[in-house]
Amino acid sequence: MQELILLIVGTALVNNVVLARFLGLCSFMGVTTKVDTAVGLGMATTFVMTVSSVLAWAVETFLLVPYGLGYLRTVTFILVIAAVVQFTESVVRKVSPSLFQTLGIYLPLITTNCAVLGIPLLNVHDNFNFIQSMLNGFGAALGFSMILAIFAGLRERLALAEVPRLFMGPPIGFITASLLALAFMGFSGIHTN
Amino acid sequence: MSVGFADAGGGHLVEGIARVVAADGVKVWLEPEQTSTCGGCASAAACAGKTGQSDRRLKARRFAVGNEAGLKVGDRVVIGMSEYALIRASTIAYAVPLLSMMAGAVTAQLTFGSDAAAMAAAAGGLLFGVLVARVWAGRLQESGDLSPHLLRRVGPGEDCHVG
Known about the structure:
A: 193 residues; B: 163 residues
């Protein structure tokens, strides 16, 4: 049990998908102008990334490895992710149309997030079993959502700050992101995968 | 505050712009316009995320509200929803099924120690979570907590990047 908790903490904080692995940077810079948008996308990404990790593990274990189709891994995982996004969208629409009106906008953005593809590939690389793949996906998504929310909060404050004209917009965003990455390096002594 | 529009109150609101696509004496049907998530991006033309704004998807997101403000087809209005409602909607839609799935999988793994049992329990947990989310969302829908409110007509020069 302790090993599983350490896996989540390690993936969320130490090997953070954005600040340590540099995945999902498009969403990180593009969807962090407002905290509410960041939270909405973060929750949706958490669901999709975890379920994708689980299904990708099943596809890898029961299809790609037994039939020697490892060279199709990336394409197959992309299909799995697209299917999970479509499935999620359909389920949310059926379960509650009002929820879909509120949250539906974030789902298509997830298909273009490379972090969602990167985590299942890393699971295969690390030879994780079912539970480890699921918790690694969840931990990575948790770290991604946390960084999205923190960075959105920082950018909302930056919008009110006096920034030199040359640094306004993305430049000060990247400088802030680098400082955030340095701060997260402080977690590197806790646990590494 | 204009007649017929909701009072924003003291809480922080997530705002967006919607266009009236149909109206009768009692209700208007609104279709949300492109939001700041994609609209402000320089790569919007090439981005696959833009598919989220296709006509089909926008039609699917149409919703009805009361027409106390006397709106006509083509009018543009600012709609709002409390930040708390957005977070609660996210929790219901995603966190409940996800946590249920994970709880089932971890419990089965620790009990039986096999991947097959964990997979079956994960599927069962996910299904259970979706059912709980459905019931919970239905209650909130009946109480109107998840419905956006009309705030005001769109002012001159006001684009989709509100709120």
